[in-house]
Design brief:
Blueprint: E1 2-6, H1 11-21, E2 27-31, H2 38-49, E3 63-67, E4 73-78, H3 93-98, E5 102-106, E6 120-126, E7 132-137
Parallel strand pairs: 2-5, 2-6, 4-5
Antiparallel strand pairs: 1-7, 3-4, 6-7
Helix pairs in contact: 1-2
Length: 145
Amino acid sequence: MILIEMSLANIDDAACTFLQKIGDCRHFAFYGSMGAGKTTFIKALCRALGVSGAVTSPTFALVNEYNAGNNGMVYHFDFYRINKPTEVFDFGCEEYFASGGYCFVEWPEKAEIVLPLDTCHVDIKELSSGNREVSITFPPHSLHQ
């Protein structure tokens, strides 16, 4: 497990640290309460990867696609409005996961059954200081264990 503490003032540095620590991992399930900072951190990750232009929450679209230049494609999912896990197959989630691009999933608990086995779990928790703690847990078969 890797822990990163961040604030809004150092979120871009935290995103760079995150990307340095993850190695070849490309699938990430972001857990945290409403307002914990999942979308805000994913926006910082997209900036660090080289996405230009607006990065927005895909709450209604379910997935947004971003070109990160030399870092390839970034797919940002939001499963908040999913009622049953099979709904994510309607938009071809397995193709996104198989693409080799970065896949960031918010509210993954709504459809965990569809996540690839190599998905890293990212928990974001608010600390009493107002900062956030980002913990990254790698899958059991990962080289990070």
